[in-house]
Task: structure prediction
Amino acid sequence: MVAAAVGVVHYVDHSTKSSAANTMTVNAKPAPPPPPTAAQSYRTVTLQSDGGGHFRVEARVDGRPVDFLVDTGASSIVLNEKSAAWLGIHPAARDYTVRTQTANGVGTAARARLNQIEVNGITVRDIDALVVPDEALSMNLLGMTFLSRVRWTHDRGRLVLEQ
Result:
């Protein structure tokens, strides 16, 4: 019996050492990096300037394509009436209550709310915009109500948007 007990102790002791050695080997390998979380994943869009140093982009506004000039000096997204009508936005004359000041002078605009704007995979939802008469604006402006909700940098003729 004593011999059997010594054999069992030796077997258990050997199994424990072998298991510990295996555990050490497994733990010695570097752990794989964790999968990206929502906070770590982001999209990047790079826009090239046109010959005049401006950035033009086709965005999808509530699912419809609309051309914009990216304008860091514009406080808001600004749509001309033609583009607003294309999106189903039809302000009445009495809705033009917002006073505007641009390089072209003083004017008025109507407030609008857009469900979403998407620029090549970067999406901003529930966003304020303004509508101005067609004669006040030939090109829609993608202003700070959009840009303030993404990260953007300007470097050597490129505008980089990240979200």
